[in-house]
From TrEMBL, chains A, B:
Highest taxon of the lineage: Bacteria
The name this protein goes by in its record: HTH tetR-type domain-containing protein
UniProt domain HTH tetR-type: residue ranges: 13-73
DNA-binding region range list: 36-55
InterPro entries registered for this protein in UniProt: Homeodomain-like_sf, HTH_TetR, HTH_transcr_repressor_FabR
Origin organism lineage: Bacteria, Bacillati, Actinomycetota, Actinomycetes, Streptosporangiales
Keywords, comma-separated and alphabetical: DNA-binding
MF-aspect GO terms: DNA binding
DNA sequence: AATTTCACCGATAGTACTATCGGTGAAATT
DNA sequence: AATTTCACCGATAGTACTATCGGTGAAATT
């Protein structure tokens, strides 16, 4: 009941945050096509025209959204990496490597949903961001695998490591989405499967590296 | 130079095909947000208002597009399955199981792109179709794995098989997209990796089935 | 206390699109 | 040959949205 007296800039910043929150919610619920200055402003409780006090246009708001989302994703990757470094060589850790991204996705599923959508939508303003994020994620994961002892010396092995990382990443996203949709209740089970998938790939990598050109049997 | 005299219904059908083709191209290049009766009609070479001679509205055109795309996808699945049945127990075939979808994706990449986009876009008219297609693909693949001898008897194993199929499917899509983007030049290599991934998962499945509750080491 | 700043407002011009309607001429039918 | 059908056309009313502009009052500054 105590009225909180805000300075003008504090109030402005609050409104800005409201706009960003509103945009994120609409983006998640209705997609980029559902975004409009009308809807975002109304959801934030201000007039449509006041939207432009805070952002030059919708494009700029989306850019800000992408930057903030990217920061959150990078922080997650850093955390996962740090944990992996704390216990090098730990086998149970291999599994942990997969639990962390799964959990982080489930904590903020809207970020992944938006990213996946933008990644494949040529009309999306967030497309470049999404493509870069996906590439960063892929390389991060490839580095993780390399850290587990599967260093790639030549071009071919490096590419293979990247392909494996790409595949595992995609599988991670798919299982996380399935979990959110209620199909896969147990995240640990998902982590186990990802571990098993990556073990299979790495076993193959070891078997074919500097040996036969290509024989997965 | 010989003018082909078309009956009225032939001409109408031709225009209809042109509209569908134009819509598919625009959908792939600009996304669903870029679709409009103006653009589609113009690209097909008719007046915007004539669009409505062929379709009730854009929604209906999208439905038709989804149905045709779905038919093509189902045909691919049937073909893959048929081939797998021809050589049961063939180990090299396990690899073939992955090459066929990869090739089919690369033959019509726009179908997958559109599907992935729609799958995660709440505003998409094609969403239901995309979700159903993804589910069908997942179950198809789970059945494929079961056919390889990893029959799932209880609820847990069935779910695990579905999770593995889901993961492998996602990886398949990711590698196909990477191939199309020029990152992975060799489709065979991609098929090898998918084979290796699935071997790892199935090995784990065999190791934990009806034994320990969950231990991936 | 007087003045300035500025976050927000309502109104509105401009843009892009949808979907309908009456008209037209060639194909199809009689 | 006369009549009907219909794929397509241009015009247009209606809808949703963007982005600007002048105005307002409370906060901030003088």
């Amino acid at each position: 009941m105590t009225s909180t007296p805000l300075t003008r800039s504090e109030a402005k910043d609050l409104t800005r945050r409201k706009l960003i929150r509103a945009a994120l919610a609409i983006l998640d619920e209705e997609g980029e096509a559902g975004l409009s200055t009308v809807k975002v402003a109304k959801a934030a409780g201000i007039a449509q025209s006041s939207f432009y006090v805070h952002f030059k246009d919708m494009q700029e708001l989306l850019r800000v959204l992408a930057e903030e989302g990217g920061e959150r994703l990078r922080a997650t990757m850093r955390e996962a990496r740090r944990k992996a470094r704390e216990h090098p060589g730990d086998l149970g850790l291999h599994r942990e490597t997969f639990r962390i991204p799964l959990e982080s996705i489930c904590r903020h599923p809207e970020l992944l949903r938006i990213q996946i959508r933008a990644r494949h939508d040529p009309s999306s303003s967030l497309r470049d961001f999404a493509v870069e994020t996906a590439a960063a994620y892929r390389e991060h994961h490839a580095a993780d695998l390399a850290a587990l002892g599967y260093t790639a010396d030549d071009e071919r092995d490096r590419r293979r490591l990247e392909m494996i990382a790409d595949g595992i990443n995609a599988a991670t996203n798919a299982l996380a989405m399935g979990h959110l949709e209620g199909r896969y209740p147990d995240l640990d089970e998902a982590a186990d499967i990802l571990t098993a998938l990556s073990r299979g790939a790495l076993r193959w990598l070891r078997a074919t590296s500097n040996h036969e050109p290509s024989d997965p049997s």
